[in-house]
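DATA CLASS: polypeptide
GOAL: derive structure tokens

***
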Amino acid sequence: MTFGSGSKQIDVNGPLPQARDAATPTTASDYYHVGVDIGSTTVKIAVFDPQYSTLLHKEYTKHLSDIKTAVVNLFHGARGVLTGRRATILFAGSGAVGVSKALGLSFIQEVIACTEAVERYAPQTDVAIELGGEDAKITYFGKLPEQRMNGTCAGGTGSFIDQMAALLQTDAAGLNELARAHQRIYPIASRCGVFAKTDMQPLLNEGAAREDIAASVLQAVVNQTIGGLACGKPIRGKVAFLGGPLFFLSELRARFIETLHLDAARGEVVFPPDSHYFVAIGAALASHEEAAYPWEEIIARLPGMAKRLESTPTHLPPMFASEDEYRAFCARHDQHQVEKRPLEEHTGDCYLGIDAGSTTTKLALVDGSGRLLYSHYGSNQANPLRSTTDALGALYEKLPPGARIAYSCVTGYGE
């Protein structure tokens, strides 16, 4: 299927326009167009030629909570295309307001920017589902467009997937690969990571297949998006899947497609190329009404941006007003310590406590007076039974011949 204006046609099922030689000459009136999306976990940039016929440059990277450095690197990475050019630019995303102000440039709301990209590159879309690092959005298109976005919680977003993957000792890509081989789906909460772990830990303890748990996590994301945002409003017609998690995780898309009963053969699944760039692309599309600046001038503003952002008071007051106050705090709390005794000096009965938690395993061995003889704290590696037996093995290797574990007790999720 193609669309476009005039004689320019774009295949929406093929790739977006590919990069051309950055040295291609343009006239002085030709301004390039730049969109920057600063999300909760990633930064993206998209650069178009003056006629919006070619996506000249794109970059997608995690900012690791250091937005200033990530933006500087992003802008320098575009110099090969934009040096010697004038460009219009718009910022979008949850982390872009402060950066755009510090640079003296304009901002556009991310849902509006994404809508710009959808209307141009996937105009057949009836509903768009977009998942980001810490947000989720559903946009209903038609005569009366309606946009919905999560508010106070990052449950069911990219960050949630990362947390659940870590519990399975893998990353998001590994979770996706595990989910390919699943046989069944378990109910797992997704509104909160704590609730999800509460559901996952018993499954791990009982030996459920990691592949099934991985697919269940992705299904939980689907349930949270549909239940929390659609709130009963049907998701029908041609559905576009946008954002990083839906671009990189094929099994997450598959869970949505199955749950929504979408038929790819009838064109109900819309998965545009570069869909994880759509907010940045939309910002670039909307930037044509902005003033154009030489790229060198924008680069020159970067040091000032960093200083202005650093001078913005965003931190809480210190917990301690002075070093003396901190030392007094430490001295006061150091008075309350668990009394300890070397294990090798102990003979007779001792008592063992085991805390098999949702993510860690803890052991404490005490004598008859409550003095701590031995302790262990470590990750359960998503296998509480194995981590506990390993910890007990290490304890017995150090237990002196004259010591005897008289009683033991277990608590925690893995009891």
Remarks:
- Confidence is low (pLDDT under 50) at residues 1-28.
- The first strand starts at residue 2 and ends at 3.
